[in-house]
Amino acid sequence: MPKQSISDIDVAGKLVLVRADLNVPLDGATISDDTRIRASLPTIQHLASSGAKGIFICSHLGRPKNGPEAKFSLAPCAARLSELLEKPVKLVTDCVGDEVKSAVDSISADQTIFLLANTRFYAEESKNDPEFAAKLAAPFDLFVNDAFGTAHRAHASTEGVTHHLSPSVSGFLLAKELEYLDGAVNNGERPMAAIVGGSKVSSKITVLEALLDKCDKVIIGGGMVFTFLKAKGLSVGSSMAEDDFVETAKAVMAKAEANGKQLILPTDIVVADAFSADANTQVVKADAIPDGWMGLDNGPEATKEISAALADCKTVIWNGPMGVFEFDAFAKGTFAIVDVLEEITAKGACTIIGGGDSVAAVEKSGKADKMSHISTGGGASLELLEGKVLPGVAALADKEEGAPPPPASASSPERLRAEVEAAREE
């Protein structure tokens, strides 16, 4: 964990580089969900009120292939930040070099907030190139990482710059994510439950196994249900099932039984004759899925059983929907989980929505503010729930204030990777 956060350092008169996660969904140039931008505000506002001379925010957006692309410009994010902060946010046309130097030189007595150009316009960003990291860090006095969504990546703007800026600390969002996700898994109040949904066992098996070690109850939902049903010898019709992971599902069920853990699968299923919003549907028992029909949601009895299982829980972690909630006909199981979590949160339980489609479902329900914590990370949330140390976090934990950074020439991508791996093992 980071040794220091933004609350522990003096930023007055300093030039601060902030790594935010502004990788928001866009419809053309229009932001369709500004959750990640809003989540970055407390750190930026703290820096502003604490007298930072200049606040320079960097982020990636999308996956540009060959340098700058207009569709991946952070201009919409600069505009939205200006609206939310109620002060100008100046967009810089580059993230390193002369344009950034000119922006620094332009700062007058009045504090200025800048948004640097998309860091992924440079291939060196994702490669964690030491020379690029040194250039990115060069104009600044200290570094604040507030981008939990990319903390599982050892990139130049998340890990590389920490070798050149001291102190390097966490922002409020990153600290909050670690407090809830890591804290809940390792020190959560019991009984503790995990709800693991989504389409594939293969993409969730490591987090599923990790949560089975920590939790008293694990509820399985979504498409991965059918691999488990197949592992029990049941017919799943035309439902999604991963034959290569049937033995894995058997092993998970055996582990749960051996350790006295509850592994809860739905007892009834909403099935359809096609993957379509207007398909014919029926509710069947989990052991009676007809040939040619596919399961797309939990049935009402399954929802009742899940509700009963969660009623006494003090900590609940949810990652992955119960069904194809994008279609109204198959959304009841997922939104029923939202309702249950709202109810137990009001009674004092800690409810954590661990990234991905479960966050989208909670946002769509309009009840995001009823949960204890909504994670801004997808892959980062999963890796933290698996018990992994995130490179962007390990890099902060490794840095003492005042320690001299190594020269760029002394660094290499191999050395940086080795340092991150060493931090993972500590």
From TrEMBL:
Residues that, per the record, bind (2R)-3-phosphoglycerate: R36, R120, R153
E.C. number: 2.7.2.3
Enzyme class name: transferase
Binding site for ATP: K204, E326, G355, G356, D357, S358
Renumbered residue ranges of the record's region Disordered: 397-426
Gene3D superfamilies: Phosphoglycerate kinase, N-terminal domain (3.40.50.1260)
UniProt keyword list: ATP-binding, Kinase, Magnesium, Nucleotide-binding, Transferase
GO biological process, one term: glycolytic process
InterPro entries, per database record: Phosphoglycerate_kinase, Phosphoglycerate_kinase_N, Phosphoglycerate_kinase_sf
Residues that coordinate or bind substrate: D21, L22, N23, H60, L61, G62, R63
Catalyzed reaction equations: (2R)-3-phosphoglycerate + ATP = (2R)-3-phospho-glyceroyl phosphate + ADP
Pathway the protein acts in: Carbohydrate degradation; glycolysis; pyruvate from D-glyceraldehyde 3-phosphate: step 2/5
Cofactor(s) essential for the protein: Mg(2+)
GO annotations of cellular component type: cytosol
GO MF term list: ADP binding; ATP binding; phosphoglycerate kinase activity
Signal peptide: none
Superkingdom per UniProt: Eukaryota
UniProt family annotation: Belongs to the phosphoglycerate kinase family.
Subunit structure of this chain's protein: Monomer.
Name the record gives this protein: Phosphoglycerate kinase
